[in-house]
Amino acid sequence: MISVLFVCLGNICRSPMAEALFRDMVNKENLNEKFLVDSAATSSWQIGLPPHKGTLDILKKYNISSKGLIGRSLIKEDFWKFDYIIGMDMSNIKNIYSITGKPNHPKIIRLLDLTKDRKDIPDPFFTGNFEETYSLVSTGCRALLKKICRKENI
């Protein structure tokens, strides 16, 4: 089983959006038996809470399930549990390095580094632009799935 963890600051906007979107992509490719997908926060502010209303609204708009999305914190042990740890911006990446104690490890990737954009995904909690976030997360998730399928020969 290939395990993927999406990480952002609060685990209420970007990372649960990425988790839901990636799961949807995996399911549409009939690969759900091959993947474990989760999301987490580098903070502890929103633990146990559902995603932000803006995230839930955008997922509903695109008919993507938000079932099972609950905020949790990234823990050191996640490094050993997941094959891919995907941060939404460089601040998240630095925090992931710090929490896991594994700086510059190749399994820790900024999502849009897999695309031609190679930039941070803005946090819609602050920008209010959930549509932009959805578009960027979607582009990144497609690139990630393509990379994993190529690497894992699936």
TrEMBL record:
Enzyme Commission number(s): 3.1.3.48
Molecular function terms, GO-annotated: protein tyrosine phosphatase activity
Catalytic reaction(s) noted: O-phospho-L-tyrosyl-[protein] + H2O = L-tyrosyl-[protein] + phosphate
Annotated InterPro entries: LMW_PTPase (IPR050438), Ptyr_pPase (IPR023485), Ptyr_pPase_sf (IPR036196), Tyr_phospatase_low_mol_wt (IPR017867)
Alphabetical list of SMART domains matching this protein: LMWPc
Keywords: Hydrolase, Protein phosphatase
Active site as annotated: 8 (nucleophile), 14, 123 (proton donor)
Residue intervals of the Phosphotyrosine protein phosphatase I domain: 2-147
Gene3D superfamilies: 3.40.50.2300
Taxonomy, superkingdom: Bacteria
Family, as annotated: Belongs to the low molecular weight phosphotyrosine protein phosphatase family.
Protein name per Swiss-Prot or TrEMBL: protein-tyrosine-phosphatase
